[in-house]
Specification:
binds 1,4-dihydronicotinamide adenine dinucleotide; Rossmann fold; alpha/beta; 48% helix; 282 residues; 11 helices; N-(1-d-carboxylethyl)-l-norvaline Dehydrogenase, domain 2; 2 domains
């Protein structure tokens, strides 16, 4: 399958990164937001991130200019052209909101287009039931998208082989490294990462060590580039908690129970970098 026109729904952290990489690879990229202020902000972010790449000589100034021209700012789902070949949804992590988007798109977008979601934890199979389930797939990029190589490609229950192969080839074309994953809670990345972060929070709660020392052990002892508590602050403690809840409910297994300290910090709005305080102060 040939992809020429793509639509990215949501211009937040992930959506603007996804539009960034597609536009640089010469795809006509419709970036969709709910209003023009958020669109302007997303496009400004993309421009700034591309400037950084120009400075580092990863791309040329000409590449940047032509990529930005290929991004078509679009307000509202109703303004996405019906003949896009691929839709990638990257709105906030909410099952009902995502279901609503896919059922609306199903009515408008050409039947042979592929629908993908960048969800980090919601079941691909559950999202696929309101639309073309055989042409529905998870395309889970990592943050920051222009830098991180991995894309988890998640097959829902009904995802066809041709859809999987087309998306895998597309990821390779974006210079990413695709990994095939089946649809179970947390996929691979968050199923392994989040329990590690959660365990670090338990260790902190039980007074096993101070936050700095827990991070130091994992950095120097395990060669992780960032300690788990620093990483949790970066991801957002609310996001970590939401993913632990998905694992806990999805597997019905107490080993995934979210740490009470994590819950308490989310209730206190100590969400990490985005609120100025989490396990550390910013
Ligand atoms: P975000 O909150 O930064 O951005 C979401 C954007 O979607 C907002 O700008 C919002 O205005 C827009 N939006 C909401 N409803 C919309 C609609 N109906 N039409 C168009 N735009 C709409 O969220 P973020 O962090 O970019 O996450 C997006 C998705 O990616 C989530 O499913 C998340 O779980 C997943 N994800 C996030 C990662 C991260 O590190 N932030 C990493 C990997 C996946």
């Amino acid at each position: 399958m040939e992809f020429l026109k793509i639509a990215v729904i949501g211009g937040g952290t992930m959506g603007n990164g996804i539009a960034h990489v597609f536009s640089l690879k010469e795809f006509e990229t419709y970036l969709v937001e709910i209003n023009s202020e958020l669109l302007d902000k997303a496009i400004k972010n993309i421009g700034e991130n591309m400037n950084r790449q120009v400075k580092k000589e990863v791309i040329s100034a000409e590449q940047k200019e032509s990529a930005l021209k290929r991004i078509k700012p679009t307000v509202g789902l109703e303004n996405i052209p019906a003949d896009v070949d691929l839709v990638i949804e990257a709105i906030y992590e909410n099952r009902d909101a995502k279901l609503k988007i896919f059922s609306e798109l199903e009515k408008r977008i050409k039947p042979d287009a592929i629908f993908a979601t960048n969800t980090s934890s919601i079941s691909i199979t559950e999202l696929s039931v309101v639309c073309r389930a055989d042409r529905f797939i998870g395309m889970h990029f990592m943050n920051p998208v222009p830098v991180m190589k991995l894309v988890e490609i998640i097959r829902g229950y009904s995802t066809s082989d041709s859809t999987f192969n087309a998306i895998k080839d597309l990821a390779l074309n974006l210079d990413k490294v695709p990994v095939e994953v089946y649809d179970y809670p947390g996929f691979i990345s968050n199923r392994i990462l989040m329990p590690m972060i959660n365990e670090a929070v338990f260790a902190l709660m039980e007074g096993v060590a101070k936050a700095e020392d827990i991070d130091q052990v994992m950095k120097l002892g395990m060669n992780h580039p960032m300690g788990p508590l620093t990483l949790a602050d970066f991801i957002g403690l609310d996001v970590c908690l939401a993913i632990m809840e998905v694992l806990y409910q999805g597997f019905n297994d107490p080993k995934y129970r979210p740490c009470p300290l994590l819950k308490k910090m989310v209730a206190a709005k100590k969400l990490g970098r985005k609120t100025g305080e989490g396990f550390y102060k910013y």
